[in-house]
Amino acid sequence: MATASAALPAADLLPVGPRANLPYRLVRLVGVPLLRLCFRFEVQGRENIPRPRGGNYIVIANHLNWLDEFALLYLFPVEPRLHFLADPTILVTRKFQWWLVRTTGGYVPVVRERSGDKALYRHVDRCLELGGAVAIFPEGSYGKAEGELLPFHKGFAHFAIKAGVPVVPVALSGTQDLWLRKRVRVIVGPAIPSQGQDPAALTQLAFERMKAMLPPYSDPDPGGRRLLRKRLTHLF
User: Which of 33, 58, 79, 224 keeps 20 to 30 A from 127, CA to CA?
Assistant: First the structure.
């Protein structure tokens, strides 16, 4: 762990902000067509996706697999740039992902083992203050099963209330077990205002909204071929 920690960059030097740099744009340029080629996305609530340059926000989504982050990047505008919370001590052990996030700058470092250190969260506040958007999986880890939610942590609510930005809920279905051309359902709900909210109340409201949006899971391709299932499910 000490070696991994020594390899981490100074978090304050990471390029958070609303503008999308060239590597970020290139990753999207290549990644979005690849996602469309590999999976069939069914999107509901496109009208709730914030407009480019319409102000920043926090996106929350349920978390099932590696595809979740890419599904959000696929849907949301290139600007304000979307930053994900990630544990850099884990990322440095995954060379491709570490290179990707370091190059695009689309993440905010949060070290799990130091979650009690409030200074770590200043990076999220700074990102929002500069106009960047932030994506958070409030369950804190992968959910146990499709169609189910773990209790939400309150961090996203504190960030949204402090910055005065809305919370956009996204329900993902079909990303836990993957294969080529699988149908993935994405539901984008109306933004939840944070002004005048209490963190506990906002957290509960967001949980209830997400639970209502998340459909019971059913096999999207019963009896169909499941090409590259193992490889795609465990790609990252």
Answer: 33
Is 171 among the domain residues?
yes
Indicate the length of the chain as a whole number.
Answer: 236
Here the CATH number for the domain that contains residue 180 is: 3.40.1130.10
Q: Classify strands 82-86 and 39-44 as parallel, antiparallel or unpaired.
A: unpaired
Domain that holds residue 93: 14-216
Degrees, nearest 5: CA angle 44-46-50: 140
How far apart CA 50 and CA 77 sit, in angstroms, is 8
Answer yes or no: is 147 within a domain: yes
Which residues, in sequence order, are bridge partners of residue 170? 61, 188
Amino acid type, 141? S
Number of domains the chain contains? 1
Instruction: Confirm whether 234 is domain-assigned.
Output: no
- Domain-located, residue 228: no
pLDDT digits (tens, 9 = 90+) for 88-127: 776 677 777 677 777 777 777 776 555 555 556 788 888 8
> For 77-91, what is the mean pLDDT?
82
CB atoms near residue 199 (< 10 Å): 17
pLDDT in tens, 200-236: 999 999 999 999 999 887 777 777 789 999 999 988 7
Residue 60 and residue 167 in contact, taking contact as beta carbons nearer than 8 Å: yes
Q: What tens digit of pLDDT does each residue of 15-58 get?
A: 788 998 888 898 888 889 999 999 999 999 999 999 888 899 99
For residue 224, give Cα distances in angstroms to 36, 48, 176, 182, 220: 19, 32, 17, 10, 9
Which residue type sits at 186?
V
